[in-house]
Design a protein that fits this description.
alpha+beta, Rossmann fold, Tumour Suppressor Smad4, six-stranded antiparallel β-sheet, 9 helices, globular
Length: about 300
């Protein structure tokens, strides 16, 4: 669904950059410093925040939309999730420094500091939907089952006495293997706007892409007022491997034991707690209710952005 780009107010000239020092493969401080310098070169004021409580102070200020034109999430998709859950009410731009950077791929985020600064100066904003799982908003996906268990294992590994370990692509290998042998695959009962199915893994998407740029929900459009869901029916590591191959071949929706659809509200029930991940981060547990939050956020886009959000 194509939408009109709304221009920035010309008198709002300050940008907040929320930076995550732990995301991705590289040292992020030099990248953030380069971005801040490029923003200043464009004649905008730049405030860099390295601690999320400082952004919470901004979110509590009702005059923030009159002071700041945008908040930049400088990190990965998890950094973005923390930013949107503070609900600053400001348009969001992604400066991708993470591993997958799914939001940046979907919404034309940019890692080049000068180009990012140009977009923040001359671009505009569009309204997009978000999802809400329990009390937590998400921009990309909420997934209950194997993926959630993997995310919870990774979160436990990250924690150490002097801070967080940096997560790189290979950091997922050990949690995935441990989940493959240790996860019990409890079943979920899913009610998606009245349609009921049962399965071992339920994924709810706001955008088409998932990890490794896999198109699990090719019809997902974050401006249509709906969430796209996919349920993989059979439990166990062997069925999971077969599902993964079908997804890679883009044939998963042809299988009789894979269910999919669109809904505004999706209820997940289970006889025991099922781990949940949201935008790649360990979250709560099912049972949980997931619903769309229509036009809940504005995203910064280039001035020439005229293409629909959805699609490969």
């Amino acid at each position: 669904m194509t939408q009109t780009v709304d221009k920035f107010a010309p008198d709002v000239r300050q940008v907040i950059v929320v930076a995550n020092p732990y995301s991705g493969r590289r040292e992020n401080r030099s990248c953030v410093e380069a971005l801040a310098a490029a923003i200043s070169d464009q004649g905008l004021a730049c405030r860099v925040i390295w601690q999320l409580p400082e952004l919470a102070e901004v979110a509590a200020d009702p005059s923030a939309p009159q002071q700041y034109r945008a908040v930049v999430a400088a990190g990965g998709d998890g950094t973005l999730n923390h930013v949107i859950n503070l609900q600053t009410g400001l348009p969001v731009f992604m400066f991708p420094l993470g591993n997958e950077n799914l939001f940046a791929r979907q919404f034309e985020g940019c890692r080049d500091p000068r180009r990012a600064a140009e977009i923040l100066t001359t671009g505009g904003t569009r309204a997009i939907d978000l999802g809400r799982a329990g009390e937590r908003l998400f921009a990309i996906v909420a997934s209950a089952g194997f993926d959630g268990d993997t995310a919870h294992r990774l979160a436990r590994w990250r924690r150490q006495a002097n801070g967080l370990r940096r997560v790189r692509s290979f950091s997922y290998a050990a949690p995935i293997v441990a989940a493959a042998f240790g996860y019990r695959y409890p079943l979920l009962d899913i009610d998606a706007d009245g349609r009921r199915v049962r399965g071992a893994l339920c994924m709810v998407f706001n955008v088409p892409r998932y990890a490794s740029n896999l198109m699990l929900a090719p019809d997902a459009d974050p401006s249509d007022g709906l969430l796209d869901w996919v349920v993989f029916e059979r439990p166990g590591s062997l069925p999971l491997a077969r599902y993964a191959l079908a997804v890679w071949l883009r044939r998963h929706r042809q299988r009789a034991d894979v269910h999919h659809g669109q809904a505004r509200q999706i209820r997940l029930a289970a006889a025991e707690p099922v781990p949940l991940e949201i935008d790649g981060e360990a979250a709560d547990f099912a049972p949980i209710e997931i619903e769309v939050a229509p036009r809940a956020m504005r995203v910064v886009v280039p001035p020439e952005a005229e293409t629909p959000f959805a699609g490969p």
